[in-house]
Amino acid sequence: MGTCVLVGFGVGITLLIPWAMLPDIIELDELETGKRREAIFYGIFVMIQKIAFAVALLMSTISLGWANYITPTDDNLTPQQPDSVILTLRLFMSFLPIAFTLLTFICMLFYPITKEKHEEIKKMLEEKKQKAKIAERF
Fold first, then answer.
1. Residue 31, CA atoms < 13 Å, CB-side half-sphere
2. What angle do CA 33, 34, 39 make, to 5 degrees?
3. Which of 33, 53, 70, 138 is the most exposed, fewest CB within 10 Å of its CB?
4. Please, what sign has the CA dihedral across residues 104, 105, 111, 115?
5. Which residues have a Cβ under 8 Å from the Cβ of 67 and sit 6 or more positions away?
6. Rounded to 5 degrees, what angle do the CA atoms 68, 71, 73 make?
7. What are the pLDDT digits (tens) for 31-76?
8. What is the DSSP annotation of the chain?
9. 52 near 68, Cβ under 8 Å?
10. CA-CA distances (angstroms) from residue 112 to 16, 22, 23, 48, 98?
11. Contact present, 61 and 41 (Cβ < 8 Å)
12. What distance in Å separates the CA atoms of residue 117 and residue 48, rounded to the nearest whole number?
């Protein structure tokens, strides 16, 4: 049970943080371009996410094939898998996610939008909106 909770936090963080960062990036883009392009950003984000899931599925399927995975049949629904399959599954469920998560954390060290920078962006956007409202009156 404790392991499930620990894994849940790890998975939750890696799935939620990118979605929390996306609005910050959209606001920075609005500040730089003057345009709100949420649909483009969310569309690209979801497309990249789907491609990543497809590549992960392809990699795991190919790896299990190389490990001599035995496909269940009607006669044998639970075939005894070789040790190489068990090792491959363990790698895909432990080492590879840890490695990719660490790589992600390293990339996050270079993320340019800090809390202070985000507050500055929001303030500048608000100032631009106020100036636009004043300009509309004249």
1. 17
2. 80
3. 138
4. positive
5. 82, 84, 85, 87, 88
6. 150
7. 999 999 999 999 999 999 999 999 999 999 999 999 999 999 999 9
8. -HHHHHHHHHHHHHHHHHHHHHHHHHHHHHHHHS---HHHHHHHHHHHHHHHHHHHHHHHHHHHHHTTPPPP-SS-SSPPPPHHHHHHHHIIIIIHHHHHHHHHHHHHTT----HHHHHHHHHHHHHHHHHHHHHHH-
9. no
10. 19, 13, 14, 21, 24
11. no
12. 26
Query: What tokens appear for 98 in the block?
Result: 């840890």
Long-range contacts, 78-83 (Cβ 8 Å, 24+): none
**Which is more confident, 99 or 137?**
99
Which two structure tokens, joined as six digits, stand for 43?
């569309």
